[in-house]
Amino acid sequence: MNTPASYFDRQYADAADPWRLAERWYDRRKYNLTVAALPHPRYLSAFEPGCSVGVLTGLLAARCDRLLSTDRVPSAVEATTQRTANADHVTVRQMTVPEQWPEESFDLVVLSELLYYFNSATRTQLLNQSAESLEEGGHLVTVHWNHSVAEHTCTGRDIAESLDMVPELKRLARYDDPDFTLTVHEHSRDAGPALSPARAEGLA
Ligand SMILES: C[S@@+](CC[C@H](N)C(=O)[O-])C[C@H]1O[C@@H](n2cnc3c(N)ncnc32)[C@H](O)[C@@H]1O
Question: In terms of Cα–Cα distance, which of 123, 162, 163, 158 is closest to 141?
Answer without folding.
Answer: 163
